[in-house]
Recover the amino acids of this structure.
């Protein structure tokens, strides 16, 4: 009898941002969700995805475009945040599947935006049970006092950076490489 693969969603979000304070009435909103699916049993990345999200209360600044490469025109073609959450649940099993991100920002941003938009949080509850902070696991596994940025962690692990930094799809792919490194070291939590 063939066993179902143990899948993990690795997620990285990009949000509207500014060089300084947001303009009046603007808030940080998710504009891109990068997702890499990892087969934990086979220890490999099996797919990568990108969901563009149309912001409702803010616009993509020049600073944000410089950082992420995303433009207002590009994200205008995206889906609503509610639709993005539906896609995560229906197409990527976000309600049942464990997930990881680099740090706590992504989990907190989803929680904030879900509350603000009146959209059901797409990941299982409680969030602490379904979410793994890969940055904290990496720092502990490597005996680091400070939790490194993702690009620095790749250098520490001897892994190449693939793609563009601050592009959700590429960052999720690179974080997944770090998850695989932690799996190989036996450092990834068994519950994740």
């Amino acid at each position: 009898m063939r066993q179902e693969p143990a899948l993990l969603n690795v997620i990285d979000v990009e949000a509207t941002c500014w060089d300084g304070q947001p303009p009046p009435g603007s808030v940080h909103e998710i504009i891109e969700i990068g997702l890499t699916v990892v087969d934990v049993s086979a220890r490999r990345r099996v797919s990568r995805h990108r969901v563009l999200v149309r912001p409702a209360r803010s616009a993509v600044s020049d600073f944000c475009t410089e950082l992420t490469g995303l433009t207002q025109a590009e994200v205008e073609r995206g889906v609503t945040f509610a639709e993005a959450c539906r896609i995560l649940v229906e197409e990527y099993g976000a309600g049942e599947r464990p997930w990881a991100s680099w740090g706590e920002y992504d989990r907190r941003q989803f929680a904030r935006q879900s509350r603000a938009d009146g959209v059901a949080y797409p990941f299982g509850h409680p969030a602490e049970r379904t979410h793994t902070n890969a940055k904290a696991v990496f720092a502990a596994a490597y005996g680091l006092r400070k939790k490194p940025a993702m690009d620095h962690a790749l250098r520490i692990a001897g892994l190449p950076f693939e793609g563009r930094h601050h592009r959700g799809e590429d960052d999720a792919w690179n974080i997944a490489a770090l998850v695989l490194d932690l799996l190989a070291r036996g450092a990834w939590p068994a519950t994740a």
